[in-house]
Amino acid sequence: MSGDGSKKKKKLPKTPGTSTRMRKTVQMKRPSFANVPALKKKTSSENLPSSGKSTSLHLTKPKKISTTIPTKSSKIASTPFSVGLPIWMKFASFTCLLLISFLSIFGIFFSHIARKEIEDQINITGKKLTSYIVHSVDPFWRVEDLNKGRGKEKVSQLESKLKHYLQENKNDIFNILILDREETIVATALPAEQFKLYELSILEESDKYTIQETKIEGVRTRVFTAPIFFQDEIVGKAQVYLRANRIDEVQDNFRKQILLACTSGITLGVICTFLFSIFLTRPIQMLIQDIRTVSSGNFEHETRPHSRDEIGELAVAFNDMTKQLKIAQEEREEKKLMEHELEMATEIQTKLLPERLPQIPKFDIFVYYLSAKHVGGDYYDFIVIDKKHLGIVVADVSGKGVPGSMVMTMARSLIRLASRGNPSPADTLRKVNKILSPDMKSGMFVSAIYMVLNIQSKELKVCSAGHNPLILYRGATREIELVKPKGIAIGFDRGAIFDANIVEESVQLYSGDRIVAYTDGVVEAMNEANEEFGDQKFYNLTKKYGHASSKEYVDAIVKELEQHRGNAEQSDDITISTVKIQ
Q: Is the pTM of this model over 0.85?
């Protein structure tokens, strides 16, 4: 850097981007501060020749900036949906499952009760019969030899008695045994060769009775055993084999009844549920047809409620929703039309901004511009007044959108006309205010800072119409000065007051100096905590990076702005125009 070669340059934070020199952002969403394009441009189509060795304006044509605005398709794709089981089938399945569960629980419960009652009846019968036999048997085997004479005769008599009992209860009794103390068979109702002992499992056991169970020839059989006493001494046992197959028969019957009931219940349930579901879901099916009609785009269609229940209420709510959709569709069409107009206005405004930046030896010029809306209210320009004077303007229109763009367009045209051959910035702004103020709506105004730079003497004349101060960085001291000429914004007054208040100041620039003109979108940039970037921070950053090239200086400022703002939405346009004297 000339004038300060002995000092070591401070390393600057870099922002990624291309080599072009300006960014024109016109999308509605907040763009990133990264990839900041800028461009070296010229403002006039005329090429001015240099005379001798004196410095004169020389312009080169850079690459054009793309101003294509991406738009979203208005057609909304339908969400894919695969139809599952219909409501009536779900309802029928649930009803059948409920019936099966209820009948199964009901059958198991009553089957258990019936089984218990039959078991109790069998046990009571077995105990009574066993008790009767015990009391009717004389324990003769205590004293008699069972294989001889009298003992053998008594055995025969006892077996005849047992067979008689068996014949009387042949459907219930399988066999009757009399056992001695050693559990040897004394007598049996069946011939010994027709009966054998079976392995028994104990069900109940007490001092009076023992109940056991086994299977004989595949038939459930309960064995009731009771002791035979003689003078309070157990001398034998009586065993009655009672058929208990009725327990299995009852269980089988209940299973069949439950199966029959379930089958009948399912059949009846499906039929009733089908009929009921058709009756219940008919209004829903009609509502679905209405929804399909509306979803095809017919917002004039109206649904007629077919019931006074929740479905009827849903139909009324759907009608209200359809009306809202119709209103939303109309608003959407209006919005599309407005967006189209904004896009056209954006293209016009973008073309009104300088196509080129001046290429002047010993002057490093760089501009950064970022719009917060489709059509911004900031404006900057470079105007070739004559061979040695360059006009530099940065302005901020109070209105945004199309109205702000119209005022900005008028201001641009008037400043260019009034500055032609006129090296006085104050005189130029007076002429602009006189013509523009009568055409501005109440409440609208334009703040502007307009400077005329003599590129030969490096003298700068500054005039401000209620704008932010010009920052003057002195390369020799690395300090800043604020140039704040007196003046009010264009549009506040149509003549005398504005003319009386507008003044211009002259500043002599030297090698290493920098001037920075900007809009309030820089210092008023808000973060997510609603905290402003602030003037002082901007001034401190200018002191820190003012010695760098203009691009590096702006990149550093933009990076700090981005870090400060975070995810907060950009609230205002941002313009930074800077010139460094080399």
A: no
Mean pLDDT, all residues of the chain: 79
Q: Does residue 393 surpass a pLDDT of 80?
A: yes
Query: Residue 400: what pLDDT?
Result: 67
User: Whole-angstrom Cα distance, residue 541 to residue 524?
Assistant: 15
Q: Provide the 10 A C-beta neighbour count for residue 499.
A: 15
Euclidean distance between the first and the last CA atom of the chain, given in angstroms as a whole number: 7
Q: Is 542 exposed, middle or buried (0-12, 13-18, 19+ CB in 10 A)?
A: buried
Q: Provide the CATH number for the domain around residue 162.
A: 3.30.450.20
Q: Answer for the pair 179, 188: CB distance below 8 angstroms, yes or no.
A: no
Our count of domains for the chain comes to: 2
Nearest to 27 by CA among 359, 345, 375: 375
Give the largest CA-CA distance in the chain. Answer: 170
Contact 556, 483 (CB under 8 A): no
Proportion of the chain in helix, strand, coil states, percent, rounded to 5: 40, 20, 35
Last residue of a domain, one of 208, 235, 250: 250
Strand partners, 213: 201, 222
Q: Examine residue 14 and state whether it is found in any structural domain, yes or no.
A: no
Interstrand relation of 389-397 and 514-518 (parallel, antiparallel or unpaired)? unpaired
Q: Which of 9-13, 31-35, 86-90, 233-237 has the lowest mean pLDDT?
A: 31-35
CA angle, residues 350, 355, 358, in degrees to nearest 5? 140
Across the strands, what pairs with 209?
none
